Structure formats: structure tokens, C-alpha cells
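Exercise 3.2. Students should predict the tertiary structure of the chain below and write it as C-alpha cells, then compare their answer with the key that follows.

Predict this chain's 3D structure.
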Amino acid sequence: MSLAADLSSKWLKVSEPAPHVLHIEFARPPVNAFSVEFWSAYGALFDRITTEGRDVRAAVVSSGLPKLFTAGIDLADAAKITEGGLGGVTNADGARSALALRQDMKAFQHAIGAPERCPFPVIVAVHGLALGLAIDIVSACDIRYAAESAQFSIKEVDIGLAADVGTLAYLPKIIGNHSLMRELAYSTAMFSAADAERLGLVSRVVPGGRDEVVAAALALAGVIAGKSPVAVSGTKRILLHSRDHSVADNLEYTAAWNAAALQTHDIPESIAAAKARRVPKFAALRKAKL
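Answer key:
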């Protein structure tokens, strides 16, 4: 059975283009606007893959639409959130309204941040317009590729709010040029794929459009999927810990992590495969619950 079986939903197309690799495509015409239903399904998808123990070792996120990644949040749903929350709180005092709104925002953040919780790397392939929420989505992924035609904007200020789903939390950790980052966040100015690479937001600009950047991302996913899932998963967790902690704290965390991880069968299998000049065979991280 394909690892992608039964994972596709209304606006998310999921396929398995290579062993242990999933391709997740946004498919909500005309502009992939994220409604509550859409972003909830996006977060639930990643959590489901992990919970069910599917032997996914890398994933690629992209848009299935030919001209853009996403125009951001569905403005109709954004209006609902600011008018009493998604739970429909009305005639409540300020404190109750704020608590309801905070719960909605936390759920939104949790969904868009789902790729970070996965034990496998998530590569995002961006093409065309990537506005507002697109930056939140991109920032929560492990590796970010852009087609040379990609255009980005931290758009939230234009609709009267500070970006609140991840952009302003992630970008200071990702981008070295804080002055330019603030300029873009305050002004909502469009910036190119070349600018994004110069900022450090993307690691590679791929000549061409959607097909070319997706192909490049899938090629990298295939390489990663051939590595030890214990080693790759551990590397992801240690890097995330390093981002948010001191060097000393991270070394302590790494020692504790590898005290267990170094007992893996993947190490002797890697060595044996290298000596025999064959492709190593690694077990799944956990037994599937399918």
C-alpha cells in the first residue's frame, strides 16, 4: 500500500513519487487561500502521518496551481476570527473575547507549525506569488527552495495586523539581516527569489518555474530518504534544540539524545552497506498503525 493512501483531502493532494517520500500539494483554486478548513487539514495531515507511523522519511510541500504558491489567508475567515473568534463569541466582555481569540490563534499556529513537529525533514518548493501566510508556511519547513519567478511579501500589515502565525517568530532565527527583514515586514514590499536567497530565507533558487523547483525539491527528498531515519530524525531534533538554546545546553541535549540513538542498528547497517558497495536498508522508525 502506498504511504500516501487515503491522505489526500479536499484541497490537499498527497502522492508518493519515490519510496518513503511524500509530495503534498496545495489545490484550492483560484489562489490557494487558506480558510479555517484548509489550514486545519494541513496541520492534521502532518500529525496524522506521524501518529500512524507511516514510514515517511522526507516530504515536499508545493502548490499544484501553475502560477502561485498561495495568496495567504482567506480574508472571509480572517474577518470571522477578529469578530468574536471562530467559536462565535458575541456580546462577551473583553477578557472572554480575548481568550476565545487567543485559542483560535494558538490553533492556527499549531497547524501551520506542524512540519516542525514531524520526525522527517520537510522541503518546501515555492513558485509564483507567496504572500502573507505563505511566509509562515515556508518558515516552518526545514529546507526552502524557490523558483526564480517566486515573489514574496510579508503582507499582514496591509490588512491591519502584525503577522501572528510564525513569520515574526521564525524570521529573526532564519535571516541574518534584521534591518532588511524589518523593512520588508513594516512596508510589505514585494521581494524576489534572489532577495530571499540573499536574506537566507531560501537556500536555493532554481531556474524555471513550478515544475523545475518541485523536481529539485523531490530530488533532494529522495537523497534524504535514502539515509538512516534515526540519524536524520535525530539531526532535525538537535538542530531545532540548538536554534532555541545555548551551545552548552545543546551539547548536553545531544549527549542525552545520542546515548540512546547510538545504539541503533542503522550504524552497523551503514558500515556493512558501504563495505559491500550496496544500498543500505533501514527499518522504519516505528511500527505503522494502519
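Discussion points: Residues 12-225 form a domain with the 2-enoyl-CoA Hydratase; Chain A, domain 1 fold (CATH 3.90.226.10). The chain has a mean pLDDT of 93.
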